[in-house]
Known about the structure:
It is a single chain. By secondary structure, the chain is an alpha/beta fold. The protein has 2 domains: about 15-65 and about 200-230, no CATH class; about 75-185, Nucleotidyltransferase, domain 5 (2-Layer Sandwich), CATH 3.30.420.10. The protein is built from 9 helices and 5 strands, in the order H-H-H-E-E-E-H-E-H-E-H-H-H-H. It has helices at about 15-25, 30-40, 45-65, 110-125, 140-145, 165-170, 170-180, 185-200, 210-230, and strands at about 75-85, 85-95, 100-105, 130-135, 155. Strands 3-2-1-4-5 form a 5-stranded mixed sheet, sandwiched between helices. It is globular, with a radius of gyration of 19 Å.
Amino acid sequence: MRPVSFKRHRFPAEVIRYAVWLYCRFTMSLRDVEELLAQRGIEVSYETIRCWVNKFGPQIAENLRKRRPPPSPRWHLDEVVCKIGGMRMYLWRAVDDEGEVLDLFMTRRRDTITAMRFLATLIGNQPVWPESITTDGFKSYALALRLLGIEDLHRTGGRRNNNRAENSHLPIRRRERKMQRFKSAASAQRFLTTHAAIYNTFNTQTHLVSRNTLRLFRGGAQAAWNAATAAS
Length: 232
């Protein structure tokens, strides 16, 4: 895990880390983060915060991913439509049965070749082999899994069986609305990859655990963040 270099920046590392965390962790605009920092006596423009997120976000996300435990082997796949520059784009996403975001891929196509590419990348990037891969009725998934020789892992049966993937789109939709839609496929891919790593680290089903357990989870998430953002 590489330490993050904050050298040659006018603001302290603590301010930069906090700004990136606020923007990626919560559904805020860059101007919202600017306002919160100003309330604490830190005068920084929203464009500077954008530069911090673009520069440090991907490395922090990579460090967080390296610290994550292996995901569940029961995976759910789905796509969500996004409009970028008036063009219809597809965000392919994979989550496990606990809501952990495994991988995502923004593309213009929604076909068997793209599905096979996404599945091959997903499997290659995970430390565990899947026990099951649940999808909706999109036929390209079945064909792609057959071509990859793992059709025995496929589970389908309609939208309800894939609710885990459907529900996992909600944070993405909220961010899309707050950002007034994504501006390009490349910037969307970069931001959503960073957002997924931070979301995985800090997301806790608060209604399913006791307060003592919640404190432990939050403490562990903060420790992971501190380690991932440690300055060189």
